[in-house]
Design a protein that fits this description.
about 210 residues; alpha+beta; 5-stranded mixed beta sheet; 3-stranded antiparallel beta sheet; 4 helices
């Protein structure tokens, strides 16, 4: 019931109106509660903030880029794939610009890199020589003004799989200490509390 005269109620209504105007919250149909008083329901707009996930692969000498757009509820809205002989920073910037032009609601870019990553910078070895010592996070943030997360590919996979398992375990009120993930390119460890274990110099966590 939004007919509230208390100061806190007025503040809440004012904030709600701001969220509605910004599009972060959407208005649902009116209804009635148990006392037959009319109530107005609202919900978070999952499309207000979208995420651009980028995964880099090197297969048979070819650079493959997979870009996935998702909303903040986890729904996949679009998937794009590209193959290049090389992937210099300028080409990566061009791909991201095209995606953000089509989807201006993107607020976060995540980049999965097949090699060591330390403090947002790729190492001087790995599968992409053209991206050695590349400050990817700083480069993309400066260009597009959104939050950028870059991580070793297996660590990134451990974050995604671990987060999904945490959700399912919490639904069953279970407890766990760590989840290990092993792939052809290395290992990753996702720990309770939502963090990953890293080896030195930006490598994936050892299993």
């Amino acid at each position: 019931n939004l007919r509230c005269s208390a100061p806190s109620g007025k503040i809440m209504i004012s904030k709600l109106e701001e969220l509605l105007e910004a599009g972060e919250v959407i208005q649902l149909m009116q209804g009635e509660n148990g006392t037959r008083r009319h109530i107005q329901k609202y919900a978070y707009n999952f499309n207000y903030a979208q995420i651009c996930g980028i995964a880099l692969f090197s297969e048979h000498g070819c650079r493959r880029v997979v870009m996935v757009l998702a909303n903040s509820g986890g729904k996949i809205l679009e998937r794009r794939e590209f193959d290049f002989a090389k992937l210099p920073p300028e080409k990566l910037r061009e791909l991201v610009r095209d995606m953000m032009t089509d989807y201006p609601a993107i607020k976060v870019i995540s980049l999965s890199y097949p090699g060591p990553v330390l403090n947002g910078v790729t190492a001087s070895y790995g599968d992409f020589p053209e991206l050695y010592n590349f400050p990817a996070a700083e480069f993309l943030m400066a260009e597009f003004g959104v939050k950028v997360l870059i991580e070793n590919d297996v660590n990134m996979a451990a974050l995604g799989i671990g987060g999904e398992i945490i959700f399912k375990i919490q639904q069953k009120r279970g407890v766990f200490n760590a989840i290990s993930l092993w792939g052809w390119s290395g290992g990753g460890v996702f720990c309770e509390g939502g963090h990953i274990c890293r080896w030195p110099r930006g490598l994936g966590g050892g299993v």
